[in-house]
Every structure is written in structure tokens, then in C-alpha cells.
Specification:
Distance between the termini of chain B: 46 Å
Number of domains of chain A: 2
Number of domains of chain B: 2
CATH class of the largest domain in chain B: Alpha Beta
Number of strands of chain A: 10
Largest sheet of chain A: 7 strands, mixed
Helix content of chain A: 25-40%
Strand content of chain A: 15-25%
Shape of chain A: globular
Order of helices and strands of chain A: HEEHHEEHEEHEHEHEHHEH
Distance between the termini of chain A: 59 Å
Structural class of chain B: alpha/beta
Bound molecules: zinc ion
Oligomer: heterodimer
Helix content of chain B: 40-55%
CATH architecture of the largest domain in chain B: Alpha-Beta Complex
CATH topology of the largest domain in chain B: 2-enoyl-CoA Hydratase, Chain A, domain 1
CATH class of the largest domain in chain A: Alpha Beta
CATH superfamily of the largest domain in chain B: 2-enoyl-CoA Hydratase, Chain A, domain 1
């Protein structure tokens, strides 16, 4: 009841029509933000994108065929911290409408066919559990089977602690699958979005034939807080951001969201033909 | 010798001190001394059995990190002959947190790669507490590739709190270095056996553990995150590390049950730190046995089996049935 009231109040004020940019504090009309692919029209800050929206912005209309949408997580360790893992899963599923943090399928990107997948950060931080690892692996195997390129939009805090070692080994599983794809001469474009850290970066994230980052995206192995605590010093300006990685030779390109589709299609075309 | 006792080992301390003093200073010819020694020995064994039969995951974590536990170079010294350490990644520097080289195992040349911790203050710092930088992983890969090119089996010894989280490590591509190792180890044609000898800390440990067989010392741990790190995030308190250690299922038995580890290598009573040679001989026997089995396979069979081994890992639901877990 209380929640309902609060929501109505928000509506009256028209708050849900507007969104505030985290970077420049500008208040933006939501329809305007959506039209701009959720990039701040004033400062260029790239808002996080839900997986479905990401695929919607990327894949040619009507061409996406989702695969393995029926994979669901379970609780192999019977993990409990302050909450039980199944409870956390249920909450995440209700919030996102997804079964887990990764969706993939086949589709066309400006006419170029590919296997395409995207992470959902709002599902437990896009963490790499058994389902995500399995689906990423199947996406890689699917690309190999269908002789298609692979495009993965990563957005993840890394491992899923609640699945313990089974989460960790997904790094090896996905990387082994990529070793096979690589031998087939099929391109894999890894797109790193804000934030991509931990086990995802340290496996398929950094294994792209071409690695593209979105502007300003935080990309790294360890998170900045952990590093700061370890070294006890302030971190360099722009540390672990997309532009910093470009400067240090760790990614091929930094591409704005509105150009992303075009750049991916162009690279696929260049590598396919 | 002044030993370092963990809290749960303390009950042993007085008995062991008395035993050692008697042995060193009293005449063994004296029947009173001999009888006391015998009694003490029996008591010590019984107490060790008692303590070590009911270790909690958190106690095992402490054992896995025990400063007197044999480290990679200790095992290398006890297991291999003719060891020659090789240095550097040919790009940036030599990372002392990783040791790599060639040696002979029962007369046969093998490549060995391991994370190396220190025992004294100087060595702990020099080895960065066993936390590699990217150049450490690149050295490991370079030497493993050398082995693959000369058809030499690869042995890796896993013992790290994790890959080092630092500015230089990030700037030089810690994530890329780990990822590349995962991918390349999956396609090396020679037999690879990994052994978790102490602490298997996260991606930094996995980066040298993509193997045909993964062995684990009885009191070693292997985890996606340290219990302290997990507790800090999920319980918002590092003090909850013992609970996190329990929840993470990081013991050798857990890993075996979850289908990640192939064999548990038994440790001498009281733990590997009490008997380096005993632990090393048990590991040596297991390494030889697994390498013999692997050598009977063709490279294609090994690569396929290695792929399948990792391919099966994970537990999830598909449609209505539970799948993926190794039986
Ligand atoms: Zn803005």
C-alpha cells in the first residue's frame, strides 16, 4: 500500500517522465533520453542498458531469434548469507523479467548475420553463474555450428559468489569454447560496457578478436575499491575507464552507442568477406 | 625448531614441545625417557587425529595458508630432479610470484609452473605473497608453450590468494593475461596436470589450472573469492569469514563432489606443513599415475576430454530437468 502511494505521488509530480543524468546532473525528459539510446544529450554519459533494450538497439527489427531462453538457475551449494540464494534469484527475476543475467540468439546487424548476446546488469550485477556461463558457451558453440560471427555485450561485476567454484570454472568453460571458435576463422567481437570487471573481463571479455568499449565504461579485473584498499593510494585520473584502456593498448576501439551498430556491422562485413 | 601453531593446533603445542625437548636433551637409552617418549607420541597422534578429523572450512582455510606449508619450490625440490628455473615474460619483467621451469620427474622431462609464496618477511614481499602480476601469467604461458612445442607434459602448482589487484597490474592487462591463459591451456596438445597445493584463489588460480586432471591436496582450498572478501560483500563484515568459508564450499571434498577436482591427495597426519617430504611423495605418486594415464591417450583424445571436462561444469535447470552436474 505504501509503495503504491509513493508511486502515485511520483506520477503526480511527473517524476517518472524525467530522469537525472548521474554524470552532469541534468534532468532529461525520458522520451528524449530513449530517443538518444539512453545517452545524455548534454554530456554524453552512457546510461546502463537492460539486455533486451541493448539487443533492440543493435539487431535489425524482427530479426532476433532468442535461443536457450528456458535455462534457469538453481542453488547447487544451498548458499545462504544474510538471505538465501533462491530468494535473491526470485527477486532478480521479478525485477528484470529474465531468468538469469544473459540472453542471446541469432539476428542481423545492419544485414550482417551473427550470434548476439547481452548481459543484464540489474540481474545480480550481471554475475557469471552456471546459467550465464552455459549460455555464453552455447552462444559460442552456436556461432561455430552456424558459421557465424559472435557479438557479446558484456556488463558484469564478475563471478557469482553464491555459486562458488561452479561460477569460477565458467571462465575456463567459455574460454575453452572460444579457443575452438578461433580455429574456425569466425570473428568474435567483444563489446565491453559499463561496468565489466572480474571473471567476465578475465575470460571472454578480453578474448575478442576485436574488443570495443563504450565511452566512459569501467573495465578491469579488480574493482577500483579493492585496488585502492590494497595499495592505499589514490587511483590515477580516468583509471580503468574505456579511454584509459585504449591509451594502454588493451582495447581496439571506443565507440559511442549511436555508432555501435554501424561499427559492428562494418567490422563483421570486413571480416566475413 | 620454533613452530607456528594455529589456534586449533594449540592443544598439541605442549605435548610436542615436551616430546622434542626430551628427544633432543635426554638419553634415549634411559628406559624412563623411552617410555615417556612412546606415551607422548601416542598421545600426539591421537590428538592430531582428533583435531584433524573435525576441521571446519575456516580452519582448513588457515591450514591452506599456513606459513610453514610446503610451497611450489619446496615441492619442486622434493619431486623433481635437474630443475632449471626459467625467468621472465620477454616483454616486461620477471615476476617472482610465479616460478616456471624444466625438470625431470622420475627421469622424464616435464614443464612445471607454480605460484610461489614466501616464508620470511623478505621473501613474502619479494614474491608479493604469491599474487602474480600479468607478466607472471605471461611467463607461465611462455614456459608452458615451450613445453607444448617440445612435447613435454605440464605440471602446475596452484597456490595464490589471487591475481594482484594493483594499478600496474591493471594497466598491463591482468584480465587479458588470465583470459589468454585459460584459452591457450584449453588447446595445448601435451598432458596437463594441475595440483592445488595450498590456496586456490579465484581467477588468479584458475589461470594456471585448466588441465586434464585437477588434483587437490587434502587441506588445500579452491574458491571463487576469499572467505574474507565474500564476507565483506555479502555479510558486510570481514568478521563473518568463517561463515563465508562454510557457505562457499571450498574444501577438497566439496570440490570433488562438485565435479571440479579429480582426486584428493592425502596429507600426512597433522597437515603438509608437518611433513613436507611426506606430502611431496604423495603428490609425486599421484602426478606420475595421472601423467601415465594421460600419455596413453592421443592428443586429440586428450583435447576432447579436457574440453568435455570443463564443458560439463555448472548446475542449472533446463525445461524442467536439472542438468550439468557431474555424477
Ligand atoms: Zn549528462
Amino acid at each position: 500500500m505504501a509503495i503504491f502511494k509513493k508511486k502515485r505521488k511520483k506520477e503526480e509530480k511527473g517524476e517518472d517522465l524525467w530522469e537525472r543524468c548521474k554524470a552532469c546532473q541534468e534532468v532529461i525528459l525520458r522520451v528524449e533520453l530513449e530517443r538518444n539510446l539512453r545517452v545524455c544529450p548534454r554530456c554524453g554519459f552512457h546510461f546502463p542498458l537492460p539486455a533486451r533494450k541493448r539487443l533492440g538497439f543493435t539487431v535489425d527489427e524482427g530479426s532476433f531469434q532468442e535461443l536457450d531462453g528456458d535455462l534457469s538457475p538453481t542453488d547447487p551449494l544451498r548458499f545462504k548469507d544474510t538471505k538465501r540464494y533462491p530468494e535473491r534469484l526470485r527477486e532478480a527475476q521479478e525485477k528484470t523479467g529474465l531468468r538469469d543475467a544473459f540472453i542471446y540468439g541469432t539476428g542481423l546487424i545492419e544485414g550482417q548475420p551473427a550470434v548476439v548476446g547481452a548481459f543484464e546488469f540489474s540481474f545480480l550485477g550481471g554475475s557469471l553463474g552456471s546459467v550465464v556461463g552455459e549460455k555464453v558457451t552455447r552462444a559460442i558453440e552456436e556461432a561455430r555450428k552456424r558459421r557465424l560471427g559472435l557479438v557479446i555485450f558484456s556488463c558484469s561485476g564478475g563471478a557469482r559468489m553464491q555459486e562458488g567454484i561452479l561460477s569460477l570454472v565458467q571462465m575456463a568453460k567459455t574460454s575453452a569454447a572460444l579457443a575452438r571458435l578461433r580455429k574456425e576463422g569466425l570473428p568474435y567481437l567483444s563489446i565491453l560496457t559499463d561496468p565489466t570487471t572480474g571473471g567476465v573481463t578475465a575470460s571472454f571479455g578480453m578474448l575478442g578478436d576485436i574488443i570495443i568499449a563504450e565511452p566512459g565504461a569501467l573495465i578491469g579485473f579488480a574493482g577500483p575499491r579493492v585496488i585502492k584498499e590494497t595499495i592505499g593510494e589514490e587511483l590515477p585520473k580516468g583509471f580503468q575507464r574505456a579511454e584509459y584502456l585504449l591509451e594502454h593498448g588493451l582495447v581496439d576501439l571506443v565507440v559511442e552507442r549511436k555508432e555501435m551498430r554501424k561499427v559492428i556491422a562494418k567490422l563483421l562485413d570486413l571480416l566475413y568477406h | 625448531m620454533l613452530r607456528h601453531y594455529l589456534e586449533f593446533e594449540r592443544p598439541l603445542m605442549e605435548l610436542e614441545r615436551e616430546y622434542e625437548e626430551l628427544r633432543r636433551f635426554a638419553s634415549p637409552a634411559d628406559p624412563k625417557v623411552a617410555s615417556r617418549l612412546k606415551k607422548l607420541e601416542a598421545k600426539i597422534i591421537k590428538l592430531r587425529q582428533e583435531i584433524f578429523s573435525r576441521l571446519t572450512p575456516w580452519q582448513r582455510t588457515q591450514l591452506a595458508r599456513h606459513i610453514e606449508r610446503p610451497h611450489a619450490l619446496d615441492y619442486i625440490g622434493l619431486i623433481l630432479t635437474d630443475f632449471v628455473e626459467l625467468h621472465g615474460d620477454r616483454a616486461f619483467r620477471d615476476d617472482p610470484a610465479v616460478v616456471a621451469g624444466l625438470g625431470k620427474l622420475e627421469g622424464e622431462t616435464v614443464v612445471v609452473v607454480g605460484q610461489q609464496k614466501g616464508r620470511d618477511i623478505y621473501e613474502l614481499h619479494r614474491r608479493n605473497f604469491g599474487m602474480p602480476h600479468p607478466e607472471g601469467y605471461r611467463k607461465a604461458l611462455r614456459v608452458m608453450e615451450l613445453g607444448a612445442r617440445f612435447s613435454k607434459p605440464i605440471i602446475t602448482l596452484v597456490d595464490t590468494p589471487g591475481a594482484y589487484p594493483g594499478v600496474g597490474a591493471e594497466e598491463r592487462g591482468q584480465a587479458e593475461a588470465i583470459a589468454r591463459n585459460l584459452r591457450e591451456m584449453a588447446s595445448m596438445e601435451v598432458p596437463i596436470v594441475a595440483a592445488v597445493i595450498g590456496e586456490g584463489g579465484s581467477g588468479g588460480a584458475l589461470a594456471i589450472a585448466v588441465a586434464d586432471r585437477i588434483l587437490m591436496l587434502q587441506y588445500a582450498i579452491f574458491s571463487v573469492i576469499s572467505p574474507e572478501g565474500c564476507a565483506a560483500i555479502l555479510w558486510r563484515s570481514r568478521e563473518k569469514a568463517p561463515q563465508a568459508a562454510e557457505a562457499l564450499r571450498l574444501t577438497a571434498e566439496d570440490l570433488k563432489e562438485l565435479g571440479v577436482v579429480d582426486e584428493i591427495v592425502p596429507e600426512p597426519l597433522g597437515g603438509a606443513h608437518r611433513d613436507h617430504r611426506g606430502a611431496a611423495m604423495a603428490l609425486k605418486e599421484a602426478l606420475i599415475r595421472h601423467l601415465e594415464e594421460l600419455k596413453r591417450m592421443t592428443p586429440e583424445e586428450r583435447l576432447e576430454a579436457r574440453y568435455e571436462k570443463f564443458r560439463r561444469m555448472g548446475v542449472f535447470l533446463e525445461g524442467t530437468s536439472e542438468d550439468g552436474k557431474e555424477g
